[in-house]
Amino acid sequence: MTEKIGRARECRLGPAGLAEVTEWIEGYRRAWEGRLDRFGRYVERTVVDEA
Amino acid sequence: MSRDLRFERLIEAVPERVFDAFTSPEGQREFYGHDAPGWIVESRCDLRVGGVWTISFGPSPGELYRHSHVFEEIDRPRRIRMTTTETRLDGSSFVTSVELTFEARGEGTLMTMIHAGFPTRALRDEHLVGLPDAFARLAQIALSAGR
Fold first, then answer.
1. Who contacts B129 (Cβ-Cβ below 8 Å, separation ≥6)?
2. C-beta separation of B102 from B27 below 8 A
3. Closest to B33 (Cβ–Cβ): which among A9, A20, A38?
4. Which of B138, B143, B147 to mutate to test the interface with A (most CBs of A within 10 A)?
5. CATH H superfamily, domain B2-116
6. How many CB atoms within 10 Å of residue B108?
7. pTM for this prediction
8. Which pLDDT band, with edges at 50, 70 and 90, does B10 fall under?
């Protein structure tokens, strides 16, 4: 919801909407963090295998 | 409004090794891999500036997500920059910028991944469709407030 007050525009997002946004970002973050971790383990495994 | 997400991992291998693994077919499949039985990863990579790396991945042929990365910069073994389009199961998509850096840390590598540019960039490129409604609302509020 937005409301113009003088020269400023005030923006508000309810708690439910904000929770939804936070949940989406958290899921996105978990997915990419998991990929980086998995890739790191893979590289370390191949280095050990060759040693 | 823009949110950047930053990921870091210290990997026990030299930057050249990590960089080469990330740009190899096996390393790229591993990046998108999963322990779930039957997990599918199909990867094709044209490793050059302007080239495209496309990956389809998911638990079954009927449930595949697609990422398409266009290489903006390839600086072995230090940096890769890509423009990434993520496509969801319903066909909707959005775009982010992804930067990967590979910094020597002793005998290892600090691999950093920064995702930037959403949601404002997504809005600018009209790729916001597919984000949750609330996320879209938040972004649109921020955009309209900035006008």
1. B92, B93, B94
2. no
3. A38
4. B138
5. START domain (3.30.530.20)
6. 20
7. 0.79
8. very high
